[in-house]
Design a protein that fits this description.
This is SDR family oxidoreductase. With 251 residues, the protein is α/β, with parallel strands linked by helices. The protein contains eight helices and nine strands. The protein has helices spanning 21-32, 44-54, 68-82, 105-133, 144-148, 156-176, 201-210, 219-230, and strands at 12-16, 36-41, 58-62, 87-90, 136-141, 181-188, 191-192, 217-218, 241-244. The strands form two sheets. Strands 3-2-1-4-5-6-9 form a seven-stranded parallel sheet, sandwiched between helices. It has a two-stranded parallel sheet with strand order 7-8. β7, α7 and β8 (217-218) form a beta-alpha-beta unit. It binds nicotinamide-adenine-dinucleotide (NAD).
Amino acid sequence: MAELVDSEHSRVAFVTGAGQGLGKAIGLALAQAGHSVVFADIDADRAEAAAGDVGPAALGVSVDVRDRASVEAAAERARNRFGPIGILVNNAARTVAQPFAQLTETEWDDVFAVNLRGILLTTQTMVPDMVDAGWGRIINLSSLAGQRGGPQVQGAHYASSKAAIIGLSRYIAHEYASYGITANVIAPGPILTEATALAPKDKLDLLASQIPVGRFGAARDVGALACHLASTAGAFITGATMDINGGLQMR
Ligand SMILES: NC(=O)c1ccc[n+]([C@@H]2O[C@H](COP(=O)([O-])OP(=O)(O)OC[C@H]3O[C@@H](n4cnc5c(N)ncnc54)[C@H](O)[C@@H]3O)[C@@H](O)[C@H]2O)c1
């Protein structure tokens, strides 16, 4: 799907939560497509290790997406190394699986701070680079949980924040469309990552049997989709929510 970019179309990509899982896979895919990639994560060691797997075209930085000063410092490190940021992938997220009745305000607020406020802060910090360039790509990770809700996924705070990401992305898409900037959502269903692999095998097998394609997604499936949205070929896709769920939800 994603074409290799030539140097004229090589951009600087900033991927949050890129120390592991989907963020790391998206960063690797963008690097393979010829972009310079900043692997940003609250776990600095993992961010640096992920960047180390790529080589000099990558940089690992520590960032806490909840905190404006931290986001600004990480963006500055990225610019100093590679130049203005053209692709922003908001992938960092967290949750604590909790039944609705036991959800505390602290957990609610923190999940929203990472999953939603993080997108506000990174986008406000990096979109001026894209406006100056007249070109930009913003890709936000939602979830099937944000589309369907449901108790089987990681709690009401997670599902609500992931639903809100779709609304926020559409808002950003509208506001910046005339600057050559697209903003889109990737909504994955079950993808096999370090985190999901921790679930008991019988639970994983049962879930896989319910997915029409008969398996979990692979992180590289999500990386390929992100590359397409980030490419010049993706210019006419904006405000969209791209389902990548093996047919688990069709709409
Ligand atoms: N894996 C799946 O099946 C799946 C399904 C649907 C949606 N998603 C979404 O895809 C994205 C990645 O999922 P994953 O499974 O790779 O998650 P993960 O938990 O493995 O990775 C999330 C990363 O975000 C980082 N992070 C957490 N808080 C942070 C903060 N405050 N600042 C910066 N970084 C922070 C973590 O250190 C971690 O490296 C998430 O947005 C998730 O909601 C994943």
